[in-house]
Structures are given as C-alpha cells and as structure tokens.
Amino acid sequence: HRSISVSTLDTILDGRFEGKRMLIKADVEGHEYHVIRGARRLLARAQKPIWLIEIALNEFHPSSRNPTFRDTFEMFWADGYLSWRLEGGTLRAIGREDIDRWLADGTTGVPWLNYLFAPRDRQPAQLG
User: Average pLDDT in the 105-128 region?
Assistant: First the structure.
C-alpha cells in the first residue's frame, strides 16, 4: 500500500502563465471531471486555456460507463467553452444533442476519444 499526494490544477498553476495562451492536454483514465473541478479558476481566467482531453463514455472505464461523461462537457459549456471531437484529421462540433444521443445509445459510435474544448471567442480556425 502506497500513499500518493495529489493536488489541483488551480493550486499547481496558481498565478502562473496569467495572460498567456495555454493548451492543456489531459489523459487521466476516467477522472476528467475531477481534474476539471480542480481547475475552476483556470476556466474562469480572462485568457482561458484550450483543452485537449481524452474522454470515454464506456470504453476503458472502470465501471463500464463513465458516470461523469455529461458533467464534464456541461462544466466546460457553463464556462463559455465549445467542444469538438477529433475524428482522424478533422474536427466535428459536439453539442448537447450528441451527448444525449450517445447516452441513450450507450455508445458514441466511433473509436475516437479526444475532445477539444476552446473558449467561444477562439474557434478552431483561430487556434493557431
């Protein structure tokens, strides 16, 4: 048995990179919602970071279905973000109707798990 110290992104990045453009990549094996909950100040910054997050609905999730799948998207949307899924080499906009359908179907229907979250004022064509 081994103890592991944990922290939040808000604590780790507190005051760092203020006013700077930032991209955060997260692949946390089903704990996306908890990571985002620990980044509330980051999401509220004037210069909001762009996020690339691997999120699975039921693929590779310990309980077979990610219980916070919708909540993760809702948290971003509430803070003024839009979302896209990276499908091969293209971006596909993702909205509430997609999440509703996937939850009803029990699958996203595709093997892609990477989602881009960007502030409303920075559409994908403006991300460069």
Answer: 83
Query: Which has more confidence, 60 or 109?
Result: 109
- DSSP assignment string, 24-66: EEE--TT-HHHHHHTTHHHHHSSSPPEEEEE--SSTT-TTSS-
Give the integer Cα–Cα distance in Å for 42 and 80: 12
Q: In which band, very low, low, confident or very high, does the pLDDT at 25 lie, cut at 50, 70 and 90?
A: very high
- The total of other beta-carbon atoms located within 10 Å of residue 79's CB is 18
What is the maximum alpha-carbon separation in the chain?
A: 48
* For the chain, counts of helices (H) and of strands (E): 5, 5
Element (H, E) at 87: strand 81-87
Distance, C-alpha 36 to centroid of its chain: 7
- CA–CA separation, 36 vs 23, rounded Å? 14
Q: At what angle do helices 69-78 and 96-105 cross, to 10 degrees?
A: 170
- Judged by DSSP in three states, 88 sits in coil
Phi, psi at 22, each rounded to 5°? -140, 140
